[in-house]
Amino acid sequence: MPRSRVSTSLDTNGRGLRMEEAQFIAALRALAFEPAARGLFDDAAVLEIGDEALVLTHDTMVEGRHWLEGQNMADVAWKLVAVSLSDLAAKGAEPLGVLIGHTLGEGDDRFVAGLREVLETYRVPLLGGDTVAGDGARTLGCTAIGRATHRPVPSRSGARPGDAIWVTGPLGAAMLGFEALRDATGADSSAYRRPSPRLAQGKSLAPVVTAMMDVSDGLLLDAWRMASASGVSFAIDSGAVPVASAKRRDECLRWGDDYELLFTCPPEATPPIPAHRIGTVASGAVPLVLDGLAIADPAGLGYEHR
Amino acid sequence: MPRSRVSTSLDTNGRGLRMEEAQFIAALRALAFEPAARGLFDDAAVLEIGDEALVLTHDTMVEGRHWLEGQNMADVAWKLVAVSLSDLAAKGAEPLGVLIGHTLGEGDDRFVAGLREVLETYRVPLLGGDTVAGDGARTLGCTAIGRATHRPVPSRSGARPGDAIWVTGPLGAAMLGFEALRDATGADSSAYRRPSPRLAQGKSLAPVVTAMMDVSDGLLLDAWRMASASGVSFAIDSGAVPVASAKRRDECLRWGDDYELLFTCPPEATPPIPAHRIGTVASGAVPLVLDGLAIADPAGLGYEHR
């Protein structure tokens, strides 16, 4: 789980600068002037067209970074699509289709089989894509498009002081699954290999939440981001967070890839689906207060994508 | 310009089969059951939503394959977006936005600068994307979304016997630009580095064409594909095709990357923009007849993406 640092390599060869991810994204944000892009601070873009609000998201996965070398490509295809659908779930959107960017390589037959499974399971049409040959670590991409089922479309930035903070299910299951797969222990690894986008939950929740996102990079880091985007402080009781392994609670709160939904509601609201209340939104400049301890710096809270 | 062969490697290592591109795409087509996907035979998906027809396309570019190693990343960013916008142009669509899949590396500052240029030039919003770190050859992706300006939305499959065949401009300019860049001759390489999507032309043509596509893989190969998709035969007079180098006419007809629009119209129609008539659609089983010579096999006609 490498962490982003904000630094720049010297331009020693005339080919231009390398940038760290945070810096690159900051540069992109300066281009994303349309409200639809939500300043690239959200899980997905929301594009108003006619009477519809379209939700668009693109995710990239790299061999050896987002999946284990030699992993079954059917699982990789499943996850590639599921991760994008999870972004739609966080917006309460129904999927309209996906486009796939594929690099040819070993296990393409399994990739197609896994793609078929995930598309059939979530009833999502394959709309198109592009296929290239490549050498070295393979890169795969998925763009998902959906239609919002409720207005306003939930964002990360709507949490208000007094709101309750909720999560739809346990964290850490993907961590245990990853370890089972990596170490070939024979234990169930499906939570890591085949995550379930919470599409039905997202749709049910959209009318009642003040903010919502999917937990892809760890509960604490994503909570920190939601609080920052909302300009509020999240007070979270770690003991109230459902975890897959009570003995490893701290790790469960920091590991990513579970794709549960994190959301806030007015204090009097009862979520229409099973969920766990884990804290309360307060006003304040420190985004995260964990068991009474203020956390101003997100370093160490979770997984930052590289 | 490597060519696809239909063959399969043996599954010798338990990781599943490698597939050739043609075979992989055939397997994907079996999944693309929605009419919106147009069977993956078209430049883009067309999705009806409310009163709108959305046009969606995804393109992938790989370092060393789609651009020269060490090439200015501003030009790479331009081309990445321009190629996707060209697919929208072929549908007569107005761009609504793009999402970018980016692998961090050398020249990211230039990439951002080139991205800004192409987005400002064509007034296209950046809606989102994803950034990853990667090793080895970098892979970039772009998804473009647009709204159709005319119904029915032009496709590759509408050409009818008797129609005239047209192209919007000269072929082979990208070939000359590529050679100038590769050999550092100092000659103008912009046609290769900074292709222009024919968005205005596509919009003007959409109401009058029976079929339309952009010429990305070479005029003859793309003509062969359009004729095949339409179930007709294209009779093309090679001498009528505008080329960037008369001495190298054959190569100009086979080289890709020019992004002119190829289209068919009823014989009595006059295109509303400057264009060159290059042939006539006939009935017949052989997709392409070049200067009277029937060409049944597309091998050797142009560039097949790998």
List keywords for this structure.
60s Ribosomal Protein L30, Chain: A, Phosphoribosyl-aminoimidazole Synthetase, Chain A, domain 2, homodimer, 12 strands, five-stranded mixed β-sheet, disordered N terminus, 8 helices, 2 domains
Structure explained in plain terms:
Two copies of one chain form a homodimer. Chain A is α+β, with helices and mostly antiparallel strands and about 300 residues long. The first copy, chain A, folds into two domains: about 120 residues, 2-Layer Sandwich (60s Ribosomal Protein L30, Chain: A); about 130 residues, Phosphoribosyl-aminoimidazole Synthetase, Chain A, domain 2, CATH 3.90.650.10. Helices cover about 25% and strands about 25% of the residues of chain A. In chain A, the strands form two sheets. Chain A has a seven-stranded mixed sheet with strand order 7-9-6-10-8-11-12. In chain A, strand 1 and strand 2 form a beta hairpin. In chain A, helix 2 packs parallel to helix 3 and helix 2 packs parallel to helix 6. The longest helix of chain A is centred in the N-terminal third of the chain and has 17 residues. The N terminus of chain A is likely disordered. At the A-B interface, helix 1, strand 1, strand 2, strand 3 and helix 3 of A face helix 1, strand 1, strand 2, strand 3 and helix 3 of B.
Secondary-structure element order of chain A, N to C: HEEHEHEEEHHHEHEHEEEE
Count of DSSP-assigned helices of chain A: 8
Biggest interface between chains = A-B, 79 and 79 residues
Strand content of chain A is 15-25%
Rg calculated over all Cα atoms of chain A: 19 Å
State the helicity of chain A in percent bands: 25-40%
By CATH, the architecture of the largest domain in chain A is named Alpha-Beta Complex
* pLDDT < 50 stretches of chain A: 1-13
Domain count of chain A: 2
CATH topology of the largest domain in chain A: Phosphoribosyl-aminoimidazole Synthetase, Chain A, domain 2
The main sheet of chain A orders its strands as 7-9-6-10-8-11-12
Tell me the major beta sheet of chain A. 7 strands, mixed
- How many beta-strand runs of chain A? 12
Oligomer: homodimer
Shape of chain A: globular
